[in-house]
C-alpha cells in the first residue's frame, strides 16, 4: 500500500507535535500487539499473529467445505459482516457474477423481504443440503436483524431439506445467548475474543472463516495485517502511515474539515468504504470524552465511488464549503477491456479509440486530482496495488490502527458504541 500526503495541504512540521504526543500510545500498541492474552481494548492487534487461530480456521474451512458447496450465506450486521463483505467484493467484484468463483458469499444484513426472497429462491434450486452453508455472526448474540434472518432461513431450509443443523455455523461471544443455543442444539460454533469489538473483528473467525470458505487466501490476508501492525507501531514515520494519517485527519478536523470523504475508484470497493465509515462513525462519534465530560465529538465519514459520484457530488466537493478532507483510494491492476481501434460511434469522444477502460479511469483519476489542486482542497492518495488478499489485509489493519491513534488524539474511547444500544433496546421493546 502506498500512502502519499503531499497534497494534504499540511506541512510535516504541523504533524510533528502530534506524533510526539502519540509516542507513548504507539509504544503501548506495540506492547499490546505482542501479547497473546486478548485482554486489552486494542487486542484486535493480536489477531494477525495468532497462529493457532489461523490454523484452526483453515482446518475448519476444509472440514466445512463440501465438494458441492455453491453458496455461503453470511448473516450478520455492522461489524459482524462489513469487513468480510468489503474484502470479498474487493476480490470477487461488486456484482458477484463471475460464475467460475465458487462458492459465492451472499450477505444478509438488514431484514428485507426482497433479499430474503432472492436467497430462498437460490436455495429452492439446490438439490443437495451440502450445496450451501449459513454462517450467522453476532458477537452479542442478541441483535434483532441477524436473529430474525436466521430464523426465516432456518425454517425455509427445514421445510425443504429437513433438519438444518448441519448447515448452520454460529460465530458469537462465548456464553452469549446464541452460543448457549448452539450448545443445546449441537450446532457448530466459534467464539470471538471478548475484547475484540465488531468493527475490529475481521481478522478473527468473524472474517477469516467465511473468507477462507470462499477460497480467499487468509494466510496472505493476515500476513498483510501483520505487516501493518509492525509498520503502524514503528517509530519510523516514513513507514507508519497509520500514525501520520491520524495526525493529518485530526488537524483537518481542527481546521473545520469535519467530513471525511473516502473516494474509492471502483464500485468493487464500495463496501470497503462503508466498512471504514462504520469504523470511523462508531469509534469517533462520542457523547463523552475519556474523562466522562460531554463533548459530542465526531467526524462524518462519507463514501464516494469514482467515477460514478463525480456526476452527483463533484460539484459540491469543489464548489461547496471547504469542510471535507478526502482520501483518494485506487488500484489500477492492468487492462482487460479496451475499445476497438475503429469505434462504432465515431467522433463522439476524441482520442478514445483503442483505449482500455482502465486507462480511461486513470485519466479520470488524474482529472480528479487536478480539480482538487485547482480548488485547493486537501487530499491524500492511497494506492492499494493489486488489491489482493495481502494488500487488503494491510489496508484494513492500517485503518484500525489509524482509528486508535485518532481516537486518542480526540480523547474518546475508540472501542465502545453506547448510542447504538439505544435503538437495539427499543426495537426489542417494540416487538413485545
Ligand atoms: O462494531 C460494532 O460493534 C457493531 O457495529 C456491531 O458489530 C453490530 O451492532 C452488530 O452487533 P452484533 O455482532 O452483536 O450482532
UniProtKB/TrEMBL annotation:
Identify the pathway.
Carbohydrate degradation; glycolysis; D-glyceraldehyde 3-phosphate and glycerone phosphate from D-glucose: step 2/4
* Entry's EC annotation: 5.3.1.9
Gene Ontology MF terms in the entry: carbohydrate derivative binding; glucose-6-phosphate isomerase activity; monosaccharide binding
What InterPro entries does the entry give? G6P_Isomerase, Phosphoglucose_isomerase_CS, SIS_dom_sf, SIS_PGI_1
One GO CC annotation: cytosol
Give the highest taxon in the source lineage.
Bacteria
* Isomerase as UniProt keyword: yes
| Keyword Nucleotide-binding on entry | no
What Pfam families does this protein map onto?
PGI (PF00342)
Q: Which UniProt keywords apply?
A: Gluconeogenesis, Glycolysis, Isomerase
The record lists the catalysed reaction(s) as: alpha-D-glucose 6-phosphate = beta-D-fructose 6-phosphate
GO biological process entries? gluconeogenesis; glucose 6-phosphate metabolic process; glycolytic process
- State the PANTHER family in the record: GLUCOSE-6-PHOSPHATE ISOMERASE
- Membership in a protein family: Belongs to the GPI family.
What name has this protein been given in UniProt?
A: Glucose-6-phosphate isomerase
Lineage at the top is:
Bacteria, Candidatus Uhriibacteriota
Amino acid at each position: 500500500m502506498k500512502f502519499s500526503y503531499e497534497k494534504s495541504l499540511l506541512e510535516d512540521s504541523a504533524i510533528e507535535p502530534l506524533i510526539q504526543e502519540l509516542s507513548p500510545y504507539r509504544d503501548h500498541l506495540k506492547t499490546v500487539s505482542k501479547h497473546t492474552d486478548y485482554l486489552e481494548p486494542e487486542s484486535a492487534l493480536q489477531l494477525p499473529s495468532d497462529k493457532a487461530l489461523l490454523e484452526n480456521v483453515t482446518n475448519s474451512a476444509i472440514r466445512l467445505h463440501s465438494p458441492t458447496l455453491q453458496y455461503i450465506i453470511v448473516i450478520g450486521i455492522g461489524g459482524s459482516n462489513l469487513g468480510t463483505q468489503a474484502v470479498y467484493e474487493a476480490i470477487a467484484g461488486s456484482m458477484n457474477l463471475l460464475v467460475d468463483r465458487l462458492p459465492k458469499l451472499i450477505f444478509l444484513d438488514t431484514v428485507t423481504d426482497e433479499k430474503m426472497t432472492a436467497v430462498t429462491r437460490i436455495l429452492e434450486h439446490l438439490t443437495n443440503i451440502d450445496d450451501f452453508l449459513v454462517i450467522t455472526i453476532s458477537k452479542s448474540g442478541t441483535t434483532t436483524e441477524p436473529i430474525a434472518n436466521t430464523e426465516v432461513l432456518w425454517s425455509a431450509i427445514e421445510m425443504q431439506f429437513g433438519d438444518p443443523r448441519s448447515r448452520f455455523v454460529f460465530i458469537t461471544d462465548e456464553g452469549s445467548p446464541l452460543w448457549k443455543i448452539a450448545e443445546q442444539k449441537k450446532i457448530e460454533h466459534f467464539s470471538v475474543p471478548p475484547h475484540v469489538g465488531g468493527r475490529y473483528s475481521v481478522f478473527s473467525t468473524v472474517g477469516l472463516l467465511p473468507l477462507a470458505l470462499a477460497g480467499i487466501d487468509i494466510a496472505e490476508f493476515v500476513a498483510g495485517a501483520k505487516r501493518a501492525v509492525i509498520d503502524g507501531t514503528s517509530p519510523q514515520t516514513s513507514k507508519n502511515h497509520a500514525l501520520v494519517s491520524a495526525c493529518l485527519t485530526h488537524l483537518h478536523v481542527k481546521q473545520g474539515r469535519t467530513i471525511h470523504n473516502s473516494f474509492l475508484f471502483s464500485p468493487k470497493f464500495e463496501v470497503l468504504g462503508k466498512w471504514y465509515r462504520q469504523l470511523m462513525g462508531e469509534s469517533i462519534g462520542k457523547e463523552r470524552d475519556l474523562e466522562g465530560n460531554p463533548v459530542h465529538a465526531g467526524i462524518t465519514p462519507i463514501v464516494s465511488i469514482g467515477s460514478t459520484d463525480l456526476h452527483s457530488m463533484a460539484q459540491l466537493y469543489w464548489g461547496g464549503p471547504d469542510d471535507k478532507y478526502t482520501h483518494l483510494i485506487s488500484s489500477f491492476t492492468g487492462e482487460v477491456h479496451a475499445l476497438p481501434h475503429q469505434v462504432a460511434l465515431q467522433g463522439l469522444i476524441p482520442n478514445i479509440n483503442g483505449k482500455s477502460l482502465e486507462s480511461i479511469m486513470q485519466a479520470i483519476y488524474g482529472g480528479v486530482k487536478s480539480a482538487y489542486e485547482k480548488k485547493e482542497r486537501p487530499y491524500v492518495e492511497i494506492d492499494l496495488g493489486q488489491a489482493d488478499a495481502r494488500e487488503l489485509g494491510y489496508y484494513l489493519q492500517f485503518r484500525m490502527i489509524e482509528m486508535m491513534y485518532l481516537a486518542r488524539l480526540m480523547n474518546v474511547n475508540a472501542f465502545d458504541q453506547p448510542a447504538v444500544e439505544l435503538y437495539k433496546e427499543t426495537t426489542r421493546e417494540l416487538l413485545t
